[in-house]
Design the sequence.
Protein backbone atom coordinates (compact mmCIF):
# COMPACT_ATOMS: atom_id res chain seq x y z
CA UNK A 1 0.00 0.00 0.00
CA UNK A 2 1.40 3.41 -0.98
CA UNK A 3 0.30 7.04 -1.23
CA UNK A 4 -1.29 6.41 -4.64
CA UNK A 5 -3.40 3.57 -3.24
CA UNK A 6 -4.45 5.82 -0.34
CA UNK A 7 -5.58 8.57 -2.72
CA UNK A 8 -7.58 6.09 -4.81
CA UNK A 9 -9.25 4.47 -1.81
CA UNK A 10 -10.09 7.84 -0.24
CA UNK A 11 -11.29 9.30 -3.54
CA UNK A 12 -8.95 12.30 -3.41
CA UNK A 13 -5.84 13.45 -5.25
CA UNK A 14 -2.30 12.44 -4.34
CA UNK A 15 -1.59 16.08 -3.53
CA UNK A 16 -4.46 16.08 -1.03
CA UNK A 17 -3.14 12.94 0.66
CA UNK A 18 0.29 14.57 0.85
CA UNK A 19 -1.19 17.70 2.43
CA UNK A 20 -3.07 15.67 5.01
CA UNK A 21 0.01 13.64 5.89
CA UNK A 22 2.05 16.81 6.25
CA UNK A 23 -0.54 18.54 8.43
CA UNK A 24 -1.31 21.28 5.90
CA UNK A 25 -4.17 23.62 6.78
CA UNK A 26 -5.32 23.76 3.13
CA UNK A 27 -7.54 20.71 3.55
CA UNK A 28 -11.09 20.62 4.92
CA UNK A 29 -11.68 18.75 8.17
CA UNK A 30 -14.07 16.38 6.38
CA UNK A 31 -11.46 15.46 3.75
CA UNK A 32 -8.73 15.20 6.36
CA UNK A 33 -10.84 12.81 8.44
CA UNK A 34 -11.62 10.65 5.40
CA UNK A 35 -7.93 10.35 4.42
CA UNK A 36 -6.78 9.63 7.97
CA UNK A 37 -9.48 6.98 8.31
CA UNK A 38 -8.15 5.20 5.24
CA UNK A 39 -4.58 5.48 6.51
CA UNK A 40 -5.60 3.99 9.84
CA UNK A 41 -7.63 1.26 8.15
CA UNK A 42 -4.75 0.00 6.02
CA UNK A 43 -2.01 0.70 8.56
CA UNK A 44 -0.10 2.98 6.21
CA UNK A 45 3.04 4.59 7.72
CA UNK A 46 4.99 6.34 4.96
CA UNK A 47 8.61 7.13 5.78
CA UNK A 48 8.76 10.14 3.52
CA UNK A 49 5.99 11.98 5.31
CA UNK A 50 6.05 10.36 8.74
CA UNK A 51 6.85 13.53 10.64
CA UNK A 52 3.52 15.01 9.46
CA UNK A 53 1.75 12.26 11.36
CA UNK A 54 3.91 12.61 14.45
CA UNK A 55 5.59 9.28 13.73
CA UNK A 56 9.29 8.44 13.86
CA UNK A 57 11.44 9.45 10.90
CA UNK A 58 15.09 8.92 10.17
CA UNK A 59 15.41 12.51 8.88
CA UNK A 60 17.68 11.18 6.16
CA UNK A 61 17.88 11.49 2.39
CA UNK A 62 19.59 8.92 0.21
CA UNK A 63 21.99 10.26 -2.41
CA UNK A 64 23.20 8.16 -5.33
CA UNK A 65 26.09 9.09 -7.60
CA UNK A 66 28.20 7.01 -9.96
CA UNK A 67 31.64 8.14 -8.78
CA UNK A 68 32.38 10.57 -5.94
CA UNK A 69 35.91 11.13 -7.27
CA UNK A 70 34.44 12.92 -10.27
CA UNK A 71 34.75 16.72 -9.66
CA UNK A 72 31.17 17.37 -10.80
CA UNK A 73 29.65 14.73 -8.55
CA UNK A 74 31.88 15.57 -5.59
CA UNK A 75 30.76 19.20 -5.74
CA UNK A 76 27.12 18.16 -5.97
CA UNK A 77 27.43 15.93 -2.90
CA UNK A 78 29.03 18.74 -0.91
CA UNK A 79 26.32 21.28 -1.78
CA UNK A 80 23.45 18.84 -1.24
CA UNK A 81 24.72 17.75 2.18
CA UNK A 82 25.16 21.36 3.29
CA UNK A 83 21.69 22.39 2.09
CA UNK A 84 19.94 19.36 3.59
CA UNK A 85 21.62 19.95 6.94
CA UNK A 86 19.96 23.39 7.07
CA UNK A 87 16.62 21.58 7.18
CA UNK A 88 17.79 19.03 9.74
CA UNK A 89 18.46 16.16 7.33
CA UNK A 90 21.44 13.84 7.16
CA UNK A 91 22.43 11.77 4.14
CA UNK A 92 23.24 8.21 3.19
CA UNK A 93 25.58 8.21 0.19
CA UNK A 94 25.94 5.36 -2.31
CA UNK A 95 28.55 5.48 -5.07
CA UNK A 96 27.06 3.01 -7.50
CA UNK A 97 29.44 2.89 -10.44
CA UNK A 98 27.84 2.62 -13.88
CA UNK A 99 26.48 -0.95 -13.83
CA UNK A 100 22.68 -1.16 -13.80
CA UNK A 101 22.55 -4.02 -11.29
CA UNK A 102 24.82 -2.14 -8.89
CA UNK A 103 22.56 0.91 -9.17
CA UNK A 104 19.51 -1.19 -8.37
CA UNK A 105 21.22 -2.77 -5.37
CA UNK A 106 22.28 0.62 -4.02
CA UNK A 107 18.76 1.96 -4.37
CA UNK A 108 17.34 -1.01 -2.49
CA UNK A 109 19.94 -0.54 0.24
CA UNK A 110 18.80 3.06 0.74
CA UNK A 111 15.13 2.10 0.69
CA UNK A 112 15.85 -0.49 3.39
CA UNK A 113 17.43 2.29 5.43
CA UNK A 114 14.01 3.99 5.38
CA UNK A 115 15.26 7.23 3.87
CA UNK A 116 12.70 9.99 3.39
CA UNK A 117 13.63 10.67 -0.24
CA UNK A 118 16.19 9.84 -2.92
CA UNK A 119 18.41 12.17 -4.93
CA UNK A 120 20.15 10.91 -8.07
CA UNK A 121 23.16 12.96 -9.21
CA UNK A 122 23.68 12.97 -12.96
CA UNK A 123 21.90 11.69 -16.03
CA UNK A 124 23.83 8.42 -16.14
CA UNK A 125 21.00 6.91 -14.05
CA UNK A 126 18.49 7.50 -16.86
CA UNK A 127 18.55 4.84 -19.55
CA UNK A 128 17.24 5.07 -23.11
CA UNK A 129 15.59 1.68 -22.65
CA UNK A 130 12.64 2.62 -20.45
CA UNK A 131 12.38 -0.80 -18.86
CA UNK A 132 15.75 -0.12 -17.21
CA UNK A 133 14.20 2.91 -15.48
CA UNK A 134 11.32 1.01 -13.92
CA UNK A 135 13.19 0.42 -10.65
CA UNK A 136 13.32 4.21 -10.14
CA UNK A 137 9.66 4.69 -11.04
CA UNK A 138 8.63 1.92 -8.68
CA UNK A 139 10.38 3.40 -5.65
CA UNK A 140 8.84 6.80 -6.49
CA UNK A 141 5.46 5.28 -5.66
CA UNK A 142 6.51 5.35 -2.01
CA UNK A 143 8.99 8.23 -1.61
CA UNK A 144 9.92 11.35 -3.59
CA UNK A 145 12.71 10.99 -6.16
CA UNK A 146 14.85 13.94 -7.27
CA UNK A 147 17.12 13.76 -10.33
CA UNK A 148 19.83 16.36 -10.90
CA UNK A 149 20.45 16.96 -14.61
CA UNK A 150 18.54 13.91 -15.72
CA UNK A 151 14.99 13.64 -17.01
CA UNK A 152 12.55 10.87 -16.16
CA UNK A 153 8.86 11.60 -16.55
CA UNK A 154 6.74 9.91 -13.91
CA UNK A 155 4.66 10.85 -10.90
CA UNK A 156 6.60 11.85 -7.79
CA UNK A 157 9.87 12.17 -9.79
CA UNK A 158 11.30 15.69 -9.95
CA UNK A 159 13.97 16.63 -12.52
CA UNK A 160 16.27 19.62 -11.95
CA UNK A 161 18.04 20.27 -15.24
CA UNK A 162 20.71 22.41 -16.86
CA UNK A 163 19.90 23.53 -20.39
CA UNK A 164 22.84 21.67 -21.93
CA UNK A 165 21.33 21.72 -25.40
CA UNK A 166 21.09 25.50 -25.67
CA UNK A 167 24.46 26.08 -24.00
CA UNK A 168 26.36 23.88 -26.47
CA UNK A 169 24.34 25.15 -29.42
CA UNK A 170 25.14 28.77 -28.53
CA UNK A 171 28.85 28.03 -27.94
CA UNK A 172 29.19 26.16 -31.24
CA UNK A 173 27.46 28.96 -33.10
CA UNK A 174 29.75 31.53 -31.46
CA UNK A 175 32.86 29.63 -32.60
CA UNK A 176 31.53 29.40 -36.16
CA UNK A 177 30.67 33.08 -36.32
CA UNK A 178 34.17 33.83 -35.05
CA UNK A 179 35.65 32.08 -38.08
CA UNK A 180 36.15 28.52 -36.82
CA UNK A 181 34.85 25.78 -39.11
CA UNK A 182 36.51 22.51 -38.09
CA UNK A 183 34.85 21.90 -34.74
CA UNK A 184 35.03 18.47 -33.09
CA UNK A 185 32.93 17.33 -30.12
CA UNK A 186 34.45 14.79 -27.67
CA UNK A 187 32.37 12.77 -25.22
CA UNK A 188 32.82 9.70 -23.04
CA UNK A 189 29.32 8.18 -23.01
CA UNK A 190 25.76 8.80 -24.18
CA UNK A 191 23.85 9.78 -21.05
CA UNK A 192 20.75 11.97 -21.32
CA UNK A 193 22.84 15.07 -20.63
CA UNK A 194 25.49 14.28 -23.25
CA UNK A 195 22.84 13.45 -25.84
CA UNK A 196 21.44 16.95 -25.30
CA UNK A 197 24.92 18.46 -25.69
CA UNK A 198 25.54 16.58 -28.92
CA UNK A 199 22.13 17.63 -30.26
CA UNK A 200 23.02 21.27 -29.64
CA UNK A 201 26.42 20.90 -31.32
CA UNK A 202 25.03 19.10 -34.37
CA UNK A 203 22.15 21.57 -34.75
CA UNK A 204 24.57 24.53 -34.94
CA UNK A 205 26.92 22.73 -37.34
CA UNK A 206 24.03 21.74 -39.61
CA UNK A 207 22.66 25.29 -39.71
CA UNK A 208 25.98 26.44 -41.20
CA UNK A 209 26.30 23.39 -43.47
CA UNK A 210 29.43 22.23 -41.66
CA UNK A 211 30.39 18.60 -41.07
CA UNK A 212 29.82 17.51 -37.48
CA UNK A 213 32.40 15.17 -35.96
CA UNK A 214 31.72 13.54 -32.60
CA UNK A 215 34.40 11.30 -31.11
CA UNK A 216 33.92 8.86 -28.23
CA UNK A 217 36.79 8.93 -25.75
CA UNK A 218 36.86 5.84 -23.52
CA UNK A 219 38.58 5.95 -20.18
CA UNK A 220 37.90 4.07 -16.98
CA UNK A 221 39.31 5.90 -13.95
CA UNK A 222 38.67 9.57 -14.70
CA UNK A 223 42.37 9.58 -15.59
CA UNK A 224 43.55 12.66 -17.45
CA UNK A 225 46.63 10.74 -18.56
CA UNK A 226 44.39 8.04 -20.01
CA UNK A 227 42.33 10.67 -21.84
CA UNK A 228 45.49 12.09 -23.43
CA UNK A 229 46.59 8.62 -24.52
CA UNK A 230 43.17 7.99 -26.06
CA UNK A 231 43.43 11.26 -27.96
CA UNK A 232 46.82 10.28 -29.33
CA UNK A 233 45.20 7.05 -30.55
CA UNK A 234 42.50 8.98 -32.44
CA UNK A 235 44.88 11.69 -33.63
CA UNK A 236 43.82 11.28 -37.26
CA UNK A 237 40.23 12.14 -36.31
CA UNK A 238 41.05 15.40 -34.55
CA UNK A 239 44.37 16.60 -36.01
CA UNK A 240 42.73 19.23 -38.25
CA UNK A 241 40.33 20.59 -35.63
CA UNK A 242 40.49 24.31 -34.87
CA UNK A 243 38.05 23.90 -31.95
CA UNK A 244 37.71 20.91 -29.64
CA UNK A 245 34.59 20.99 -27.48
CA UNK A 246 34.35 18.52 -24.61
CA UNK A 247 31.46 16.99 -22.71
CA UNK A 248 33.27 17.49 -19.39
CA UNK A 249 36.32 19.22 -17.95
CA UNK A 250 38.33 16.01 -17.44
CA UNK A 251 38.32 15.41 -21.19
CA UNK A 252 39.22 19.07 -21.78
CA UNK A 253 42.31 18.82 -19.55
CA UNK A 254 43.34 15.71 -21.47
CA UNK A 255 42.90 17.65 -24.72
CA UNK A 256 45.08 20.45 -23.35
CA UNK A 257 47.87 17.97 -22.59
CA UNK A 258 47.45 16.37 -26.01
CA UNK A 259 47.66 19.74 -27.74
CA UNK A 260 50.80 20.70 -25.89
CA UNK A 261 52.45 17.38 -26.76
CA UNK A 262 51.63 18.03 -30.41
CA UNK A 263 53.12 21.51 -30.22
CA UNK A 264 49.83 23.28 -30.88
CA UNK A 265 49.41 26.90 -29.82
CA UNK A 266 46.36 27.51 -27.64
CA UNK A 267 44.04 29.18 -28.53
CA UNK A 268 45.65 30.24 -31.85
CA UNK A 269 45.90 26.80 -33.48
CA UNK A 270 43.11 25.16 -31.53
CA UNK A 271 40.56 26.38 -29.01
CA UNK A 272 39.45 24.09 -26.19
CA UNK A 273 36.16 24.24 -24.29
CA UNK A 274 35.21 22.07 -21.33
CA UNK A 275 31.86 21.58 -19.61
CA UNK A 276 30.80 21.82 -15.92
CA UNK A 277 33.21 24.61 -14.94
CA UNK A 278 34.70 22.45 -12.17
CA UNK A 279 37.67 23.51 -10.05
CA UNK A 280 40.11 21.69 -12.35
CA UNK A 281 39.60 24.38 -15.00
CA UNK A 282 41.67 26.69 -12.79
CA UNK A 283 44.43 24.11 -12.22
CA UNK A 284 45.79 24.17 -15.76
CA UNK A 285 48.11 26.49 -17.64
CA UNK A 286 46.51 28.03 -19.60
CA UNK A 287 43.29 28.02 -17.59
CA UNK A 288 40.42 26.25 -19.32
CA UNK A 289 37.29 27.85 -20.68
CA UNK A 290 34.19 25.86 -19.74
CA UNK A 291 30.40 25.89 -19.80
CA UNK A 292 29.09 26.47 -16.29
CA UNK A 293 25.90 24.45 -15.78
CA UNK A 294 25.36 26.19 -12.42
CA UNK A 295 25.53 22.98 -10.46
CA UNK A 296 25.26 24.70 -7.10
CA UNK A 297 21.99 26.34 -8.14
CA UNK A 298 20.69 23.00 -9.40
CA UNK A 299 21.48 21.37 -6.05
CA UNK A 300 19.98 24.19 -3.99
CA UNK A 301 16.84 24.11 -6.10
CA UNK A 302 16.70 20.34 -5.73
CA UNK A 303 16.65 20.61 -1.94
CA UNK A 304 14.15 23.47 -1.83
CA UNK A 305 11.87 21.56 -4.22
CA UNK A 306 12.13 18.48 -2.03
CA UNK A 307 11.17 20.49 1.04
CA UNK A 308 8.15 21.74 -0.89
CA UNK A 309 7.16 18.14 -1.63
CA UNK A 310 7.52 17.29 2.06
CA UNK A 311 5.29 20.26 2.93
CA UNK A 312 2.60 19.18 0.51
CA UNK A 313 3.12 22.19 -1.75
CA UNK A 314 2.47 22.10 -5.48
CA UNK A 315 5.92 22.00 -7.10
CA UNK A 316 6.91 21.53 -10.77
CA UNK A 317 8.07 18.11 -11.91
CA UNK A 318 10.72 19.77 -14.07
CA UNK A 319 12.91 22.83 -13.57
CA UNK A 320 15.41 23.97 -16.22
CA UNK A 321 18.30 26.38 -15.54
CA UNK A 322 20.38 28.19 -18.15
CA UNK A 323 24.10 27.45 -18.51
CA UNK A 324 26.76 30.10 -19.04
CA UNK A 325 30.01 30.00 -21.04
CA UNK A 326 32.95 31.04 -18.84
CA UNK A 327 35.78 32.15 -21.08
CA UNK A 328 39.36 31.88 -19.83
CA UNK A 329 42.58 31.33 -21.77
CA UNK A 330 41.81 28.38 -24.05
CA UNK A 331 39.24 30.21 -26.19
CA UNK A 332 39.30 33.55 -27.98
CA UNK A 333 35.66 34.41 -28.56
CA UNK A 334 34.69 38.08 -28.64
CA UNK A 335 33.78 39.43 -25.22
Sequence:
Amino acid sequence: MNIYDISKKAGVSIATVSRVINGSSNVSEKTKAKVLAVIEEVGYTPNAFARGLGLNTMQTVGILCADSSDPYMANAISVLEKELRVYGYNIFLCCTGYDLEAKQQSLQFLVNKQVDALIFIGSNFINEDQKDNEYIKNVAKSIPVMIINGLLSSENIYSILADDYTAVYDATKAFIENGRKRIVYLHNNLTYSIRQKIRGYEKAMNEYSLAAHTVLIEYTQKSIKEVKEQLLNVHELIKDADVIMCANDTIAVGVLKYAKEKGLRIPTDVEILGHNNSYITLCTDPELSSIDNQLEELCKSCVSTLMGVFNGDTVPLRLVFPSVLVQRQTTSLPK
